[in-house]
Amino acid sequence: MKELNNKGFMLVETLIVAVFLVTIFSILYVNFYPLMGEYERRENFDDLDSKYAIYWIKRMVQDSYYNLDTASITSATGNKYVKFDCNNFSDNNKKSVCNETMSRLENPEIYIISYVTTDFKNKIKNNETFDVGIRDYMSYLPEYTIGSLNGAQYRLIAKLHNSKDDNDFYTYATIEVKK
Amino acid sequence: MKLNNKGMSIVEILVCFVLVALISVSIYTAISSFNNKRNIESFKEKIYTYKNTLTKLIQDDLIKNGLISADYTINNGIYTINLHFRDNTQKTLVITRKLAMDYNEALENKSGPLQNDEFMILYDGIEYPLPDLGEYQNDRGETIKDLRINNIIINTDSSVLTIYIGLYHPDLSTRYGINIVCPINYF
């Protein structure tokens, strides 16, 4: 009868299989692990509280007493954004309500950009004068190239600080604006 | 026929046992940490749903009905906020926050009336009890809920309404809360 092959595996064969397995698991880990961080980061993107907060700022931008410097946002040579500022209200009562609202919202940073986000995305992509949080959020947002169904020309981008109850984190939100 | 009947040596068996033990321990640790994470995610989801439901209800009224004024009273752990709308309707938000003593307080005050944790949010006549995420008892036998209303801030000054209801859970700390800011009489 034929003699059985009972030599077992050679060291080289075992090493090849081990290296192969390590490579597969490394690839899986490298691709899977960032998704966890992404998921945790997105908890702070467009959450309900930020959406309602930015809604009230949108109402202020839409106010007829709020002067919006549209040239800076839309012209080819412009800055591609303006920051929301309560001093742009020509009515003192509205300015005062605006200041109080901003203070209660813990003084968020609000950028007014064009509806299509491409220009602003390109502007801040590798620009370190903008912090990582807002750059991350902008890279997460789509470009909205199809255009607004409501005829909105502008978009607000908000970075909101949450510090109540010893918290210290930022949330981000966007909303379209028709003015 | 010549069979291989040498069997395994004690060293081989020991190495095998050690390997199996190592694999079992690492799998147990991974599963146990996954299970813990799953529980926390489930708590987070319940708190998120609760806070979003209430926030949406109140903010929708503020936006659609238009807030013209707001007033509030605080009495023995009960916060009552009246919201008056443009169409002459009124809705009331009642927050009940009565706290049992924590462990250290309970150790120092063995006597006195007992008070279990009692939390309830009532909006427009409908009760919204906090999600039940577990409870335990202090040395006095008072019930302490795992999910508590940690902090309440109400402010109606300077034509802006703020309602903040901070929630606390041992695994999630104070990360989640109901946070409403709305200008008054702003149309």
Explain this structure.
The complex is a heterodimer of chains A (179) and B (187). Chain A is an alpha+beta fold. Chain A folds into 2 domains: 10-42; 44-177, no CATH class. In chain A, 45% of the residues lie in helices and 15% in strands. Chain A has helices at residues 11-42, 48-62, 70-74, 92-104, 118-124, 132-140; strands at residues 82-83, 109-114, 154-162, 169-177. Chain A starts with 10 loop residues before the first helix and ends with a strand. The mean pLDDT of chain A is 90. Chain B has 187 residues and is an alpha+beta fold. Chain B has one domain (12-183). Helices cover 34% and strands 35% of the residues of chain B. Chain B contains 2 helices and 10 strands. Chain B has helices at 10-66, 103-108, and strands at 67-75, 78-85, 90-98, 118-123, 126-128, 135-137, 143-145, 148-155, 160-168, 177-183. In chain B, the strands form 3 sheets. Chain B has a 5-stranded antiparallel β-sheet with strand order 1-2-3-4-5. In chain B, strands 8-9-10 form a 3-stranded antiparallel β-sheet, covered by helices on one side. In chain B, strand 6 and strand 7 (143-145) form a beta hairpin. The longest helix of chain B has 57 residues, at 10-66. The model of chain B has no long low-confidence stretch (mean pLDDT 91). The interface between A and B is medium-sized, with 23 and 29 residues.
